[in-house]
Amino acid sequence: MTAASVMSSLLAVEVPYWASSIIKLGVVALVVPTAALILGYVFLMKMMSFMQSRLGPMEAGPYGTLQLLADGLKFIQKEDIFPEKADRTVFALAPLVVLISTFLIFVVIPTGPDAVVAQLDVGIFYALAVSSLSVVGILMAGWASANKYALMGGLRAAGQLIAYELPLVLAVMGVVIQAGTLDLQKIVAAQANGEIFGWGGIGNPFILTQFVGFFIFLVAVQAETTQPPFDMPVAESEIVGGYQVEYTGFRFLFFFMGEFGTAFAFGALASVLFLGGWALPWGDITHWGFNIAGPVIMLVKIMAVSALIFWFRFTYPRLREDQLQRLAWKFLIPLSLVNIVVTGVFKVVL
Amino acid sequence: MIAEHVAFGIIAAVMVASALRVVTTRDIVHAALYLVIVLAGVAALFLLVGAEFTGITQVLIYIGAVIVLFLFGIMLTRSDFDQDEETDHKRKFPAILTALLLLAVMIGALVDRFDDLKLDANPQTTAQVSDELFSQYIVPFEAVSVLLLAALIGAIVIARREEGG
């Protein structure tokens, strides 16, 4: 039961297995660039501009809405440059590895009772595992560029991503303990059907009980997507863009889509884990209408989470490398462990 | 079953080819990257037999962490981008001998244990894994966690001593 089968029931057409696979593939392939466009335009271009008392792009399309499309076209036309000493194969593959990791996260994100590409029993665990693949791509880029700034950026990225992967995974543990499952659909159902001390008026979105987890998750996501204030790996004033420094044209575009696509995917995961996902606490969540309304509800929640992430991004100055590591190891990880213990105690007592 | 056999054949062929490149390539970063393909193949095989949890763990631990540490170590300690003359193949024959011996032992052990064992057709769920882990295998599980803790403390002590001395 998937998005494709919903379409078939609407159109009263039987969709064969291979066709539904192609449709799913197409949906995922479209979601990543669209997500990058939405976040890039709404937050990077407009929200940042307004926060800095300027208008941002205004010329391309109404209110500059087509600016990123124009940028994308420009990137595709550019010459495909390889540095002379670069390790060509690895250099070419690196952006693809990052992008594939982003694509793979979207596979398990549910947007309706049937509107999900693959409902896995290990859902959230899978999403966190494939999101960690991007580190390999970043290290490949840093190494293959044969550039000291790129290498430095790659190393910083690896150190940071390993450090913040732990709080990311541990923050999710609290939700998993409360819901009693790793399956993202069942986590959504647990929140929609949940009750707060016997009162089911708004379900039980886990942000209420797991607010510590939500906070840790957001900070870790910020670091995982190397956004300011955690942008040491790409700090342009120190290492001119880090592992991306030698990339131009569509290969740079891949990194851009990977970064913003991953931010969107993590926003979606945060909405599913903490904000109730595609469901509303009222009515029957197995109703097929949620396949249509679900994506819209999800988008609203993702935009709310992304607004928070980008608000941090535009507000705080960059953390130094030692401050960054200290925050992860000495604050976030102990805090998330305490959160797990407290959640576990409550789970057993209540 | 035919589809599974074909998939197994393809994955196994890719894994063997990559594994050979791991030991024959002269570039140590390439060796680590070929190892990624081998480990991804292992994960794919786990998924193929329905062990979802084990397969995903393989990706998270080996590709997401172990390989990243390998690459991190290599890049931190080497600065030349050219081919490594130091990555020699001088001890080729002892290595091949060890590999063959290990292969013989593994084949013996695996055939002995799993000779005509039929796999359950249903995928193993995470709940099943954790139920078994925390009931039937609780003692080995705890022993492993104590072992890991000891290794962790040991690593910190050794690193600290070098720093001080």
Summarize the structure in words.
The complex is a heterodimer of chains A (350) and B (165). With 350 residues, chain A is an all-alpha fold. Chain A has one domain (3-349). Helices cover 67% and strands 0% of the residues of chain A. Chain A starts with a helix and ends with a helix. Helix content of chain B is 78%, strand content 0%. Chain B contains six helices and no strands. Chain B has helices at 2-24, 28-48, 52-77, 92-114, 126-133, 138-164. The longest helix of chain B has 27 residues, at 138-164. In chain B, 13% of the residues are buried. The A-B interface holds A 85, 87, 90, 120-122, 125-126, 128-130, 132-133, 135-136, 139-140, 142-143, 146, 151, 154-155, 158-159, 161-162, 165, 182 and B 27, 29-30, 33, 36, 52-53, 56-57, 59-60, 63-65, 67-69, 71-72, 75-76, 81, 123, 125-126.
Q: Estimate the mean pLDDT confidence of chain A.
A: 81
Largest sheet report of chain A: none
Question: Any guess at the CATH architecture of the domain at 1-80 and 114-119 in chain B?
Answer: Up-down Bundle
Largest sheet report of chain B: none
- CATH superfamily membership of the domain at 1-80 and 114-119 in chain B: NADH-ubiquinone/plastoquinone oxidoreductase chain 6, subunit NuoJ
Rg of Cα set of chain A: 21 Å
CATH topology (level 3) name of the domain at 1-80 and 114-119 in chain B: Four Helix Bundle (Hemerythrin (Met), subunit A)
Average per-residue pLDDT of chain B, rounded, comes to 82
**Counting H and I runs of at least 4 residues, what is the number of helices of chain A?**
13
What structural class results from the helix and strand content of chain A? mainly alpha
- Uncertain segments of chain A are none
Shape verdict of chain B:
globular
Helical fraction of chain B: over 70%
Oligomerization state: heterodimer
What is the count of DSSP helices of chain B, taking H or I runs of 4+ residues? 6
Strand tally of chain A is: 0
